[in-house]
Amino acid sequence: MKIIYEDKDIIVYDKPAGVNADEIRFRAHRLDKDTSGVLVAAKNKKALAFLQKQFAENKVEKKYYALVVGKIKKDSGTIETFLARSPKDKRKQKAYLSVAELGLKKPRKALTKYRVIKRFKDFTLLEVIPKTGRKHQIRAHMTYLGHPIAGDKLYRFRNQPCPPELSRQFLHATAIKIRLPNGRKKEFKSPLPEDLKKVLLNLSLKENNEH
Length: 211
Hints:
ten-stranded mixed beta sheet; 4 helices
């Protein structure tokens, strides 16, 4: 994996899709295998505890790019639910509006903000800002909204459209702002990778040809 930044305490990677980052010893947070982008890891246990505390307290600012299925009408919005493991599929997270719906399961509040960057005929490109760090949060929340992430094989709806050249979920961690163990606050960025750029270019070309 390409290294974006490194000092004596931390190392920041630009993770490509398809790489399972669970093998990194002192990972401060997780990115799903098919999600690309900024991944922060520590070099020692003390730095790991320092970073993990910020993630646990939702003090890390994160930004993602996501291409979702369908046209989102509002230019921006907030999704706030509880998330818990889906009773129908243990691999998935399910959004619940109230703790009562969950029964005895441990409720975990999840908050996601989004804004529209560009609308296509069958898709919408979003900037997504998760304010909490729950497992599969963005993927579960977009499905809950009725607009699953394009190419997401786990959370997709039946017969949902997918750009033909997209072979994975269109979700990219483009920026993370975090305080380092040395006290400085830094932002790390990852540009949209070529495979996702190509998807957007082809969608634009296709729509221009249709007009």
